[in-house]
Task: inverse folding
């Protein structure tokens, strides 16, 4: 093993040893405090984030992993967001005293899965990454001992298993069609094998569609968003989805471009039905977490609008949108976690009445994130939508862009409804927990990033353009 | 030697059978069994293709598949057991706590 290999694998080793170390602290003779467990977890996450900075790009790791600028950018995002989620969980009231070794090590392993997924250039490593990401999530969703939490865990376990089966069948058929599992080699297959390969990619797309909660594979999303504790919702609503999406972009846009072109009509249809169904279901939803779940279905639809353009411009727009999407959702769910009641999250929209006035910092941050989700300038959400719809128009999909814009207008209604409730006259203050400083700091940083990315998008677009 | 298409058809049938079990049976344990049959359909495809292309990738994929799906089903089984142990739930339609809230009843 050469030194470049070791440097490239350092973040993986750090995450694995971090997960095991945190787990082993459970058998330490004295009881280790939650504070030190959290500190150890944060240290490993930040160390592996630093380790990615030493990556020499581009570098290929024995045809299993590829280390390039795209994987570095997103690995950094995953590590830092995971650190943010650990911070949010630390003072999250409903799971107080339950954030112990297992919880923290599962978050570290889930982060490992995301990193593996986004760096994989072989279908086997992609599958292993996908599962390392998914299996910890079952346990994390069912963390609280309530019927609804366990129900959510079972639903996610069954549907994720279903998705994994489709993905695997796709992988096996791709192998049958070309005799290789390497993405680069699959990209250069000859014409007569492409039919079977297209079928294989469609099956993989079904599996990925389940993970991304695209309509018609979206049934699990609102239930799981509602059942999971808010920090875990933040984890899989933002970075876990983005990891899967980045794998899809690497698969379709970078390696299998001929299949991408063949699948454009399918992406077109998926984009339209995801946008319309997501927004319509969100419109009259009274439960905030379910509302955000439906809105995220619509957002994945907007990202597919960019991918359906089938051009390099569309790919860049999708990557930029993915980045923005992760930040927006992280911010929103961090605020939901900060507003939680002592034993559960606030679910009903009414329970948020007047909280924005009472907690100005969290309220303003929530406002920024919601405006970003709605796509108003000067936030990054506006630039992301502009780029995505612009790419669709550039590629001649005028109809798709019009449907997307109408949907954005529709979405304004329910985002503004949340803001109105948040800033309406408060009636009474019922047993609130004091929001922690760590969560407030994260929320402020996320909002500043959203405004910063929205005001000066050129730099980020330059970086994305070089992928 | 058995041609590739025969094995692929058998594997496709196995996968469809598992899919039908998942979609039609309502007991949680049967749904997990159906998932296992779907995984086996994928594994058979990989093995047959590995034989056809005469390289080891198909077998490597199958070994990974068996290990990873076993780990996955362990966690799923624990969750199903928890649901039975605490709430006496064995059927999928009993899982109805999580649902849409359009009216917003003041709870």
Result:
């Amino acid at each position: 093993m050469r030194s470049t290999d070791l440097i490239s694998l350092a973040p993986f080793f750090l995450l694995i040893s971090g997960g095991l170390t945190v787990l082993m602290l459970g058998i330490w003779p004295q009881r280790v405090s939650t504070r030190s467990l959290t500190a150890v977890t944060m240290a490993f996450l930040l160390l592996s984030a630093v380790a990615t900075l030493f990556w020499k790009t581009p570098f290929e790791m024995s045809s299993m992993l590829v280390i390039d600028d795209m994987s570095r950018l997103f690995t950094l995002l995953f590590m830092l967001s995971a650190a943010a989620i650990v911070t949010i969980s630390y003072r999250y009231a409903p799971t107080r005293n339950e954030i112990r070794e297992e919880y923290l090590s599962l978050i570290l392993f889930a982060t490992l899965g995301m990193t593996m997924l986004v760096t994989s250039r072989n279908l086997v490593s992609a599958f292993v990454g996908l599962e390392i990401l998914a299996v910890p999530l079952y346990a994390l969703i069912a963390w609280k001992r309530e019927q609804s939490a366990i129900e959510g865990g079972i639903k996610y376990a069954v549907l994720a298993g279903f998705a994994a089966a489709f993905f695997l069948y796709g992988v096996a058929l791709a192998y049958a069609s070309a005799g290789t599992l390497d993405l680069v080699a699959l990209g250069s297959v000859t014409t007569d094998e492409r039919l079977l390969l297209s079928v294989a990619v469609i099956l993989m797309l079904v599996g990925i569609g389940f993970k991304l909660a695209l309509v018609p594979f979206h049934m699990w999303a609102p239930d799981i968003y509602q059942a999971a504790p808010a920090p875990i919702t933040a984890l899989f609503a933002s970075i876990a989805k983005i990891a899967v999406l980045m794998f899809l972009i690497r698969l379709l846009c970078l390696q299998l471009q001929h299949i991408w072109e063949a699948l454009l009509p399918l992406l077109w249809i998926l984009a339209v039905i995801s946008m319309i169904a997501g927004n319509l279901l969100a419109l009259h939803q009274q439960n905030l977490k379910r509302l955000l779940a439906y809105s995220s279905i619509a957002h994945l639809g907007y990202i597919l609008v960019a991918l359906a353009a089938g051009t390099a411009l569309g790919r860049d727009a999708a990557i930029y949108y993915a980045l923005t999407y992760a930040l927006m959702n992280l911010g929103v769910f961090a605020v939901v976690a900060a507003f939680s009641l002592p034993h559960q999250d606030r679910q009903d929209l009414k329970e948020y009445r007047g909280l924005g006035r009472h907690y100005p910092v969290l309220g303003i941050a929530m406002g920024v994130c919601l405006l970003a989700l709605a796509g108003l300038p000067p936030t990054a959400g506006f630039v992301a939508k502009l780029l995505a719809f612009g790419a669709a128009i550039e590629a001649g999909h005028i109809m798709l862009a019009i449907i997307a814009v109408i949907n954005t207008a529709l979405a304004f209604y329910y985002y503004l409804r949340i803001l109105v409730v948040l800033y309406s006259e408060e009636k009474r203050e019922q047993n609130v927990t004091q929001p922690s400083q760590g969560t407030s700091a994260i929320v402020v940083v996320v909002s500043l990033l959203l405004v910063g990315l929205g005001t000066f998008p050129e730099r980020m677009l330059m970086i994305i353009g070089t992928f | 030697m058995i041609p590739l298409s025969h094995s692929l058809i058998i594997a496709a049938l196995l996968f469809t059978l598992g899919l039908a079990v998942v979609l039609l049976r309502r007991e949680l344990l049967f749904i997990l069994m159906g998932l296992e049959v779907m995984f086996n359909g994928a594994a058979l495809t990989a093995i047959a293709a590995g034989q056809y292309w005469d390289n080891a990738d198909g077998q490597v994929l199958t070994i990974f598949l068996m290990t990873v799906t076993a780990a996955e089903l362990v966690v799923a089984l624990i969750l199903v057991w928890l649901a039975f142990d605490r709430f006496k739930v064995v059927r999928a339609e009993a899982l109805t706590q999580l649902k849409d809230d359009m009216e917003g009843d003041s709870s």
Notes: Chain A has a mean pLDDT of 89.
